Amino acid sequence: MKYVKIYLPKEEKLLPLITVAAVSLLLIYITMLNMAISENFRKGELDRRIRITRQDIQDREEVFIAGLSGFYDQYSASFEKKEIPKQEFVSRESNFALSSLGNLR
Questions:
Q1: SS3 assignment, position 3
Q2: Membrane spanning segments where (predicted)?
Q3: CA-to-CA distance for 18 and 2, rounded, in angstroms?
Q4: CA 91-61-63 angle, 5° bins
Q5: What is the pTM of this model?
Q6: pLDDT, tens digit (0-9, with 9 covering 90-100), for 41-57
Q7: CA–CA separation, 92 vs 5, rounded Å?
């Protein structure tokens, strides 16, 4: 068996190594860029959900405050005069509340 020895200049020996290094760096750059974009997208989605949740909570709070204000406006004079019949504030499911209120007096 005879081997043929081919003489390659130094530059040609380094060309495959440089090509592999350049392709590897390019792949690493693309991967890191993709990860950064996906992380920013996830943060944006999380921020959007937080804003929506805050808005929902704020809307519910405003509805509750408006209802509480209406309740207070409707019954504040009766509270001051202590003329509120007990049945107005007791639902059918909580009839036991009447008996417990009667035991407190």
A1: coil
A2: 14-33
A3: 31
A4: 60
A5: 0.45
A6: 999 999 999 999 999 99
A7: 102
